[in-house]
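Supplementary notes for students who missed Thursday's class. We covered one full example, reproduced here. Read the sequence, then the structure, then the short commentary at the end.
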Amino acid sequence: MRLSTVILPIDRWREGGRDKWRRAEELGFHAAYTYDHLSWRTFRDGPWFGAVPTLTAAAAATERLRLGTLVTSPNFRHPVTLAKELISLDDISGGRVTLGIGAGGTGFDATALGQEPWTPRERADRFAEFVPLLDRLLTEDSVSYEGYFYAAHEARDIPGCVQRPRLPFAVAATGPRGLRLAARHGQAWVTTGDPKLYENGTPEQSVHAMRGQVEKLADACAEHGRDVTELDKILLTGFTPERSRPLESLDAFVDFAGRHTELGFTEIVLHWPVPDSNFAADHKIFEQIAMETPTQLS
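Structure (token representation):
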């Protein structure tokens, strides 16, 4: 089981931002991710920086740490321009980038460009077109494509990714269409659990729901002739009924991580503590968890 973190892009780079990414590497995290939003939830009226420039700076400030998004979506991205940015980022980082990608939602990103929010059906339809086109753009020198939502005309992406055949996709999905995309194009799968259980569910119900998600992923993989064990399974924490309680002590987190490792999860992602927010936590305990949990679970 690997332990990673997600660092919200809320700090000016020279006023604490750079230090967090460097410290994440020092603590031994497998990866450090950031959210790819234009603004997000309760942080909307405060500082919020772009994901790709932040990850580019993080690539220059670190040497071993994997970097990525949790997650990018079609809400304000186009596959052609995103591919160019990802190839550049993969090159600058020396091949340390993972693209977390999802269908998007109804938050601020959905309307920031002046459009009406897409329906769940349209988000799924766009996602089903976005991911395969992005896959091609990252693996072929020149791509032409005419789809219902997206087009590319002789789009050049030379020299391609440092990672071959391309940087890995971590596909966030719980529905059948998204899980099939993960099975077909993903090197990893991402979940936050069952959002319906966040407010009033129990930890036991959450574990049961995620066991069902893993089983559906296995079925989707079987449809595409893949073994589900080929995919890493990533749990982004903070959105299950436990909320921040697993970060209250090392023992609490080891218990939480152990229960989810038994479900087949290979990577657990913690939010870097943010005071006065849903992600508030004792930073000393957070660092203790980062340094000692892998040994406890080995």
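Commentary. The chain is about 40% helix and 15% strand. The helical segments are 17-26, 51-61, 79-93, 120-139, 176-185, 203-223, 250-261, 283-297. If anything here is unclear, bring it to office hours.
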